[in-house]
Design a protein that fits this description.
Chain A is mainly β. Helix content of chain A is 0%, strand content 38%. Chain A is built from no helices and nine strands. Chain A has strands at residues 20-21, 25-29, 33-39, 48-52, 56-61, 72-75, 82-88, 99-103, 106-112. In chain A, the strands form two sheets. Chain A has a four-stranded mixed sheet with strand order 1-7-5-4, with no helix packed on it. In chain A, strands 2-3-9-8 form a four-stranded antiparallel sheet, with no helix packed on it. The radius of gyration of chain A is 19 Å and the shape is elongated. By secondary structure, chain B is mainly beta. Chain B has two domains: 10-41, no CATH class; 49-147, Immunoglobulin-like, CATH 2.60.40.790. In chain B, strands 1-6-5-4 form a four-stranded antiparallel sheet, with no helix packed on it. In chain B, strands 2-3-8-7 form a four-stranded antiparallel sheet, with no helix packed on it. In chain B, a hairpin with a 2-residue loop joins β7 and β8 (137-143). The longest helix of chain B is centred in the N-terminal third of the chain and has 14 residues, at 19-32. Chain B starts with a strand and ends in a 15-residue tail after the last strand. The chains are: A mainly beta, B mainly beta. The A-B interface holds A 19-22, 24-26, 30-32, 37, 39-44, 56, 65, 67-68, 70-79, 81, 84, 86-88, 103-106 and B 1, 3, 5-6, 9-20, 22, 43-48, 53-60, 63-64, 66, 68-73, 99, 101-102, 133, 135-137. β6 of chain A pairs antiparallel with β2 (54-58) of chain B, so a sheet runs across the interface.
């Protein structure tokens, strides 16, 4: 093991941290998987980071759009903030099989349940 | 340009790293503002039933409206200009895939309708208005007409 390449903690953001906002989201559970749906309008897929650590699922999504030069905001309702969602991770989730898809501002995370941890019926012989 | 303010602006939330703490805060909000929390919890698109947030920008050539409408298909969004009013509508029917393994088998249909109307200034080139939809954000460009300068009207003095 090479200790020099030990993973550095997440580099701090170069710019002052922007406000973050919990996106609107839902969690659904079926027999096979959990599905997390989060609304991230204005986010491009390269700007979404999904991380799984031992106990949490973290989604960080950056809004990179800025008004072009010469534009002045006449009226604003959308928040100038990035999105951050932290969810407690169910231990049944098969980490290797997690999938993410971003489509028109809607992020869908599919977190399948590990086969070995699904409830199973044990037949009694004899 | 007159816009009726969107009512359900989401909360600004500092990054909360502890789901437990957030649950606790949600609970406190539920206790303190029951009406608000029921509004917030009425499904994923709960607060998008009806309205959605818009921003309005202007530069020397045009006004630009940006509207957050996540999860629509392009063909489900309507942009209309009539009598000096810009109307943005979204109408979508989502069929949840039926999963035979599920206990509640069978497809369910969810319908989502949103609409927002903005009154427009008079000096626009209505025929040149165009719209684009990307990443769940609708952008409507409203070019200004050339003769925006106030016309000088000579008054004859007798």
């Amino acid at each position: 093991m090479n200790l020099l390449t030990k993973k550095e903690p997440q580099a701090p953001a170069q710019t002052a941290p922007r406000r973050t906002l919990i996106p609107r989201y839902s969690v659904e559970e079926t027999a096979d998987a959990f599905t997390v749906t989060a609304l991230l309008p204005g986010v491009n897929s390269p700007d979404v980071e999904t991380n799984l650590d031992r106990e949490t699922l973290t989604v960080f999504a950056r809004r990179t759009w800025t008004p072009p030069e010469g534009w002045t905001a006449v009226y604003r309702e959308t928040p100038q903030a990035d999105y951050r969602l932290v969810l407690e991770l169910d231990r049944r989730v098969d980490r290797e099989a997690v999938r993410a898809e971003l489509k028109q501002g809607v992020l869908t995370l599919t977190l399948p349940k590990a086969e070995s941890l699904k409830p199973r019926r044990i037949e009694i012989k004899g | 340009m007159r816009i009726i303010r969107y009512q359900n602006t989401p909360f600004y939330t500092p990054s909360l790293n502890y789901p437990g703490l957030r649950d606790e805060m949600d609970r406190l909000f539920d206790v303190a503002f029951p009406a608000l929390s029921s509004l917030q919890r009425s499904g994923l698109f709960g607060d998008l039933e009806g309205e959605f947030p818009v921003d309005l920008y202007q530069d020397k050539d045009a006004f630009t409206v940006r509207a957050e409408l996540p999860g629509f298909r392009k063909e489900d969004i309507g942009v209309e200009v009539a009598d000096g009013v810009l109307t943005i509508t979204g109408h979508q029917k989502t069929e949840t895939k039926s999963d035979k393994k599920d206990i509640e088998a069978g497809a369910t249909t969810q319908e989502r309708r949103v609409s927002r109307a903005l009154s427009l200034p008079e000096n626009l080139r209505v025929d040149k208005i165009h719209a684009a939809y990307e990443n769940g954000v609708l952008t409507v460009t409203l070019p200004k007409s050339e003769e925006v300068k106030p016309k000088q009207i000579a008054i004859e003095v007798k």
